[in-house]
Amino acid sequence: MAEVARPDSFYVEELDSVFGPFQILKYRDAIKEATPLPKLLICESNIPDSTIKTIWNPLLDKWTNHGDIALLNGRGQVRVVLCKSANANTLLVTERCDNLCLFCSQPPRDVDDTVLFAYAAQSIVSFRSSDVIGISGGEPLFDKKAILNFFKILNEFNDKTPLHILSNGRAFKDINFTENFKEAALKRKIEIGIPLYSTSSRTHDYLVNSKGAWNDTIKGLINAGNRGIPIELRVIPTQANFSELSSIVEMALTCFNSITRVSIMNLEQTGWAKKNWKNLYLKPELYCDELQEACLLGDRFGVDISLFNYPLCHISEELYKFAKKSISDWKNSFPADCEYCTIKSDCGGFFSSIRNMEVMPKGRIM
Amino acid sequence: MTNYKSLPIKFRELEDGRTVISNLANTYHVLNDVQSLRDVFEVGKCTDTNLLNELEQKLFITSDLDFESKVHLTTSAFSKRINKDLASPRLIMIVPTLRCDHHCSYCQVSRVNADLSGFDLQSSQIPSLINYITKIEKPPYKIEFQGGEPLLAFDFIQAFYERFENEVGKGNFNIVIATSLSLIDESIINWCRGKNVGFSTSIDAGKKAHNKHRKLITKNSFELVQKNINWIHDELGKDKIGTVTTVTKDGLEGYDELVDTHMALGLIGMFVRPVSSYGFAEEKQAKDISITDFMVFYKKLIRRILNENLSGTPLIEHFLLIHYKRLSNSPSAAYVDLMAPAGYLKNSILIDYTGNVFGSDEARMVYRKYGVDELIVGNINNTELYLEHSTQLLAHSFNFDVPGCSDCVYQGSCGSDPIYHLQDFGEPIGVKSYSRFCELHKSIFDFIFELIRDQKYKKVLDGWLNG
Amino acid sequence: MILPLSKHLYSELVVRKALYWLKSEYQWTMDENESAWLITFSCSQEDFLHCKYELNKLLNDYSLREKIDSQTDDLKLAIIRKALKDLSKE
């Protein structure tokens, strides 16, 4: 498959023993130097008496911007986690999770990684973006104290960076936590992306591989919605739940408050989805009626419904207006055949994660 | 699923033998017959797994395991629906003058001749008026001028507009003038250009009915209205003119003519409803039209309109659309007459030429006819509010606890109209089995279920939902 | 013309609901004895027949409602009460 659009990981030998989050600078900058994170100056010329760590690496220089945030692993790896030229930035704040989704793209690890929250808060404050930054995991709300503390730090710096948090919503079944979360989080524009996979527990709990998950998520959606916490409802169609796709959306829009939009997302072939692919994945062509029905609910309920990660050659033309380009540009690529496609510029492309798959561009669309 | 629990439902048998069911979340499903209803809900044994799955997905039945959550979901949906009706913004109606140049036989308001004095709001009252409006409501403001004939008080409207724009800002309000259009002239059109001002006018079902009801000095009300609609269309834009059609006995054959007229005028929207007994109308026209007769007319009208849509002509009938939106839990289904608790006072307010404030247009009419002082809620010249009576009216306007409505399948979509029932029955609830309000809305809901049985008609109606 | 309705078959509420929706041309009064509700209609023999048919249909409808509702009435009240309570908090 073709190369991804923008590389975000580099090996820099001289940073071999350096560990933790750093803010990348290309020149001296008094304002940025006042923010929490240590600085890494990437500069060709050697500035004498510099108190800031200075290196030169052309590849790193090419793919980073002044103000970007990178995480160094102490073994020379530099991973850019917040990049000004990315069309979307996401921070991982924990690998712990109380679900075990069959298609999990970030399989959970039960480790004490609360330090990631601290890194994330400091990174956000230092990065100073007016664009939305994504927060994901694991389950970002798994450790309630940690997430509230995360907001405490942000609020202390009066940071107003808009945030989008991915969560299974189970933490919101606790009304007190929901109230505290609302107080702390709603000081900035925020949206919580919460997936709901079925109108009943059997199918949802099967897909997320956790008994009681549906119950918790439903309670969570009700509580969070009632408190005015903006919610993006996510649904991933699979073999198990495609037939109730529009029922899920209809139930959500009838019962929950504060739903800002609905995102129907095509299965991504990463993580555990790879091993469960045969039992989960369904080609969009096989459920286009259900997709259509679900999308039309947008007009009925006055809410935006979007399709994500559906290459245009795999859905019917009437659905083109709902299809959005991929959320993360670092995931997409276009196979060679796409060159001939007349609607390529409107299309999100395919995931770079796709390997040996039946999913291929349909050929030339003239 | 073999074992399941039922959630609370209501049902109604349609004329074609199918049975509509609904629940507290206000979702609907149509069963093929009453026997299916008995099998699923009375006997509790049903072998149709597809049906059971559908009913489970729509919150009619639930597994034991999911029972608690499904109850929470239902409660949440129920609250959400009531909240929608509580939260919609108010329509602010202003009657700048009672004077009118027409003398219409079904006029809902008392009117006085155009040359009389003492029946107008004074320009000097504009500051108090604006002060009152901004106190009780927040932007964006929806304002409608009624009358009499508001264009006879055009000076007042202009003065109001200027001052209001100064106070609240240009993008924060929208004005509609409800008028016969007979007095539209060049200067009015020029003034309206570029402003957030639109017109609403009444067109009867057919030229014969239209001219019969309206006695204008020049006798050609219908032609005049058409000419002026075209004028506004061309000079100000399609979106600046809307029509309302009140159907009386004389119009019952006019369904095709009504559609033809709208199409010839290039109008995309219509709003059609039966004449309703308030004020002077009661004595003359209302007794003549039964809901049964109206529905015969209405069904033919709607089928004609839907077929025009299928042939590619966009044409929306908004009265039907409101009902469809209510059945669909659409958010933009705020229609003052079809809300529970009632839209009276909380979603509409009317300021009379005397400065008196009423909770609705109908309340003003009942006051004028019967002198019911309790319907005066306040006055723009002072800060007093007389809310006791109105609070009572509103408290009795929920429809889940009221005889006649408590078992009705359309309860979640319908509304209550305390002023209508107050006039007809002497109290705000009324006897629903005699109520034209009940009969009308129930008939239209029934009709919708009849219509959407046909997928192509359903598609047209679904296409109207974003309008 | 008197129509007796067995109290074993019909509860008072079912009878009253059925009468509520009866067409206005049928004038009625309601009485009772130990075993039955007694509905007195003032109409001709022929009209009485039509009236009985109509009333039977309504009685059937409301009986069915009563049976179906009997399992869910308490739940219905609980849902409505909770919803209103939540609303009054906002």
Our estimate of the beta-strand percent of chain A is 15-25%
* Sequence of strands across the biggest β-sheet of chain C: 1-3-2
> What letter string, H or E per element, gives the SSE order of chain C?
EHEEHH
Largest sheet of chain A: 8 strands, parallel
Strand adjacency order, main sheet of chain A: 7-8-9-10-11-12-13-14
Biggest sheet record of chain C: 3 strands, antiparallel
Q: Which percent range fits the helix content of chain A?
A: 25-40%
| Secondary-structure element order of chain A, N to C | EEHEEHEEEHEHEHEHHEHEHHEEEE
Overall residue-averaged pLDDT value of chain C: 88
The tally of strands of chain C reads 3
- Average pLDDT of chain A, rounded to a whole number, is 89
Q: How would you sum up the global shape of chain C?
A: elongated
How far apart lie the N and C ends of chain C? 56 Å
**Integer-rounded radius of gyration of chain A:** 21 Å
User: What portion of residues of chain C belong to β-strands?
Assistant: 15-25%
User: Which spans of chain C have pLDDT < 50 for at least 5 consecutive residues?
Assistant: none
- Helix/strand-derived category of chain A reads alpha/beta
Task: Flag low-confidence runs of chain A.
Answer: none
- Helical coverage of chain C, percent range: 55-70%
Count of beta strands of chain A: 16
